Amino acid sequence: MNNSIVISQDVINTIKSLPREQQFSIISAIAGEMIFGAVVRDELNEEEKRLYSVIKSDVCRDSMSYNNCMAV
């Protein structure tokens, strides 16, 4: 069974609140890691790494919740 990746409106709003350059860095890192399995953290600066960790945690939490609901 394939699991879905959920990017909630809260995550989208968080990303939109970032400066434009960070928006692209974070969303590229999410896509690169969660969709393609690439290691992209090394390409982020320290601030972006912290932001990415928080946002990835939110995406993982929302995705697990959605996937658990769909399994019932």
Notes on the structure:
The protein has 72 residues and is mainly alpha-helical. It is built from three helices and no strands. The chain is globular.
List low-pLDDT spans: none
Q: Topology as H/E string?
A: HHH
Query: Tell me, what's the shape?
Result: globular
Helix content: 55-70%
Largest sheet: none
Using only CA atoms, what is the Rg?
A: 13 Å
Q: pLDDT average, as an integer?
A: 90
Structural class: mainly alpha
Spatial separation of the terminal alpha carbons:
13 Å
Range of strand content: under 5%
Number of strands: 0
Q: What is the number of helices?
A: 3
Short précis:
With 72 residues, the protein is an all-alpha fold. 69% of the residues lie in helices and 0% in strands. The mean pLDDT is 90.
Features:
globular; 69% helix; 3 helices; 72 residues; mainly alpha; single chain
Which helices and strands occur, and which strands form pairs?
Blueprint: H1 9-16, H2 20-35, H3 46-71
